[in-house]
Amino acid sequence: MQLPPKVTDRAFERLSEIGASAEGKALRVAVEGGGCSGFQYEIKLDEPSSDDLVLEGNGERVVVDSVSLPFLSNAVIDFSEELIGARFVIDNPNATSSCGCGTSFSM
Questions:
Q1: Which of 40-76 are b and which e, b meaning 16 or more Cβ less than 10 Å from the residue's Cβ?
Q2: How far is CA 67 from CA 24, 42, 53, 107, in A?
Q3: What are the tens digits of pLDDT across the range 33-86?
Q4: Which band of pLDDT confidence, cut at 50, 70 and 90, is reported for residue 25?
Q5: In this structure, which CATH number among 3.30.70.920, 3.30.590.10, 3.30.70.260, 2.60.300.12 belongs to the domain 6-95?
Q6: What is the pTM of this model?
Q7: What is the DSSP string of 69-84?
Q8: Which residues contact 96 (CB under 8 A, 6 or more apart)?
């Protein structure tokens, strides 16, 4: 059974810090073909569309389009702050392998 992705409190807090909802934006998480492993994530601030799944928390929104949704079933969208930088990250149980950059994966 496909379950929608989960968004951590930390990810919603980061969206709040950058003022995404104040600008009418949501964090879009999409999957597209390409990258070094077959698929890659696209993560950006965007306007929600009518066919998006909307995940809400802390007054903020994360949206996933209907085409990307099956690839993100049960995934966890988080925000990570490391020495190499701060970024939104996706822990995807559907990915069988990924590359070092963390934005490309295969299924």
A1: bbebeebebeeebbebebeebbbbbbeebbebbeebe
A2: 23, 13, 11, 15
A3: 876 767 888 999 999 999 999 999 999 999 999 999 999 999 999 999 988 889
A4: very high
A5: 2.60.300.12
A6: 0.86
A7: GGGGTT-EEEEEEETT
A8: 105, 106, 107
